[in-house]
């Protein structure tokens, strides 16, 4: 369908792909330096062509609609370089002999890889990938939540998993998100993942959100929880002014991967 799109429509489709398939109309207008009306007019044509869907001020690629984030292997390949830089940065924030929760996100999977040289970690996770990468090395102890294993991402959820992690209180929780915007905070596409994230945030001392910049101004349908509970956000690029102000108001310390230990308040 793309050969029939005009130049602006192709730009919109390219920006949607860069953003992981979902973006707000206002952000598309800002990035492409065109008016919101121009975006809406071209989006309407793309909707008619069956290329995108529009809902509540956002635009989404149709071929990514049925499974918003895809399986873990697909997500690992998206923005791989940025995720690896974020992972390397987060690893420098975790001392040896720490205890930590790690969730099932693709960025979290790269963080598990970056932590493989650490020693005597106590890891609590619901991710088969994380457990596999960090177990049986450097005197680590890995505790894996039990329950039904999801085939698409190797994650474990449900009542048994929640009851298991309730036994632990850790130094850190390392979390991932599908989107972050000033109005809704950190969001996900999956309710079970959001409930699990809320639970481990309550059971940890320091909460670190690992989020590449493609998630900025992207909105999932499920809010993870009060964004003020997040202590640190590690990412690869500066957010928009609106989001930057929101992060400041929430008290989230902002870290750029190319500016080690730089809080948002210093900008």
UniProtKB/TrEMBL annotation:
GO MF term list: DNA-binding transcription factor activity
Record's keyword annotation contains Amino-acid biosynthesis: no
Xref: InterPro entries: ArsR-like_HTH (IPR011991), Carb_Metab_HTH_regulators (IPR050313), DeoR-like_C (IPR014036), DeoR_HTH (IPR001034), NagB/RpiA_transferase-like (IPR037171), WH-like_DNA-bd_sf (IPR036388), WH_DNA-bd_sf (IPR036390)
CDD domains assigned to the protein according to its UniProt record, in alphabetical order: HTH_ARSR
Positions of the HTH deoR-type domain: 6-61
Keyword annotations of the record: Repressor, Transcription, Transcription regulation
Recorded superkingdom: Bacteria
Annotated protein name in UniProt: DeoR/GlpR transcriptional regulator
């Amino acid at each position: 369908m793309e050969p029939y799109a005009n130049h602006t429509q192709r730009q919109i489709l390219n920006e949607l792909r860069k953003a992981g398939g979902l973006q707000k109309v206002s952000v598309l207008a800002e990035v492409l330096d065109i008016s919101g009306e121009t975006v809406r007019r071209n989006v309407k044509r793309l909707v008619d062509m069956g290329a995108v869907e529009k809902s509540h001020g956002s635009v989404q690629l149709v071929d990514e609609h049925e499974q918003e984030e895809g399986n873990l292997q697909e997500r690992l390949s998206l923005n791989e370089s940025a995720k690896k830089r974020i992972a390397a940065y987060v690893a420098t924030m975790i001392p040896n002999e720490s205890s930590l929760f790690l969730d099932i996100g693709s960025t979290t999977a790269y963080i598990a890889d970056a932590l493989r040289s650490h020693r005597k970690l106590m890891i609590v996770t619901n991710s088969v990938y994380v457990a596999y990468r960090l177990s049986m090395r450097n005197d680590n102890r890995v505790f894996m939540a039990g329950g039904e294993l999801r085939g698409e991402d190797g994650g474990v959820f449900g009542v048994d998993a929640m009851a298991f992690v309730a036994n632990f209180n850790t130094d850190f929780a390392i979390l991932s998100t599908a989107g972050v915007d000033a109005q809704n905070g950190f969001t996900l596409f999956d309710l079970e993942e959001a409930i699990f994230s809320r639970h481990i945030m309550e059971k940890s001392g320091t909460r670190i959100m690992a989020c590449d910049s493609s998630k900025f101004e992207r909105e999932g349908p499920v809010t993870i929880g009060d964004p003020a509970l997040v202590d640190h956000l590690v990412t690869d690029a500066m957010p928009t002014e609106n989001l930057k102000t929101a992060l400041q108001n929430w008290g989230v310390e902002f870290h750029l991967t190319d500016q080690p230990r730089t809080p948002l308040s210093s900008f």
